[in-house]
User: Fold histidine kinase from Streptomyces lydicamycinicus.
Amino acid sequence: MVRARGGRSRLRARAGRAVARGEAKGRALGHGAPVRRLRALAPVVVPVLLAIADAMLVNGLELDLEVGVSMLAAAALVLRRRFPLLVFLFTLPGLYIGYIWFAPMIGLYTLAVRRPGRARLGICAVLLIAAHFFPYPITDFELTVYRENTLVLIDACVTSAAPIALGLLVRTRQELASRVEDLTRSLRREDRLLADRVKTTERARLAREMHDVVAHQVSLISLQAGAVQVSTEDPAARAGARTIRELSVRTLEELRHMVGVLRADGGEAAEAHRLAPQPDLTELPRLIEMSALDVTYEGAVAAGTSGTKTVERAAFRTVQEALTNIRKHAPGARVRVRVDPVDTVRGESSGRGEDSGRAGGSGRAEESRAAHGLRVEIRNGPPDATATVPALPGGGHGLVGLRERAQSLGGTLEARHTSDGGFVVRAEFPYGAG
Assistant:
């Protein structure tokens, strides 16, 4: 019995080396779809084939009881991952009657990987040792053959301990890999939290600086305007001072909202978003009245009746920026602001650069279409040669921002000079984008 089992050990060693060489060749083939399918099927098919080869080498091809239980034990390995304990118990008759090793060892290894309970593994190890130690039929057992029984018992203990040790090692490795992955995710999450904290700190610092610098200057303007309003006797000067004070107050309110947005973090972001200024078309007449320009307003759209707040805010900001540019670059010019609906948004968006010293630019653009939109046009004539040009700072980025806002809403913006020396800004927004 010992010699026969030693021969099977050599056969298993050669088979194991052959499998290792096959796996090395499989890794060299690449990562194609057939290779991936082969890698998925290999853990299921290879153990079954090894167990069948073991059964055929030990018991031959003649159909008898030994071959039958050995083949059933090999076939049961197909379900070893789903029912590891039942499959192991099903392979024990193959070891006891058919003297096969691969099927019960693979079953015990799978049990150690999938169900590593100490009591369960201990009982299963004892069962495998018993099936290995006692011969079939049991009447052939000779208690007095101490040397042979000792060797067989040692062989049985090693046979049961090896798959358990390998299975526990594989399971430990899998758990370590999972913990390393969890640790990596935790570190990435901590990095993101740290980056968010740095951003929040920087936004708060910018908000404080903006509030300290801009609010102080605007407050001084408001105080000086109030002093002029009280001290002057000229009605026109008093009205101008009152307008300046109103503009200062409004600027401080918008500044407070923007500072709240900058300082918002996490759950405060939604609250800050609600506090942010939400101008729409109803604010346009007031904006035009306080612009100190000769403006003709033609509004053919009732605010809030057919469009969305996002589109109306975009229209308001377009008019606001255009009037600011007119004050800086075309003082004394006559202005016409027109807001009307369009059934199909179709226009041009300037694709070239814009003049930093002039509110505009020219260029070709791409077309876009959308049903039911809003058109905003601000057209001014040539500047008045006798008017004083205010020394207002400008970065040349106003119309760039307006064009980006229009494109983000699916609309277009055109800014160009006119033949009479004036300038026109025309924007079209689809309501569906807002």
Observations:
- The longest strand covers residues 334-344.
- The chain has twelve helices and seven strands.
- Residues 279-384+394-434 form a domain with the Heat Shock Protein 90 fold (CATH 3.30.565.10).
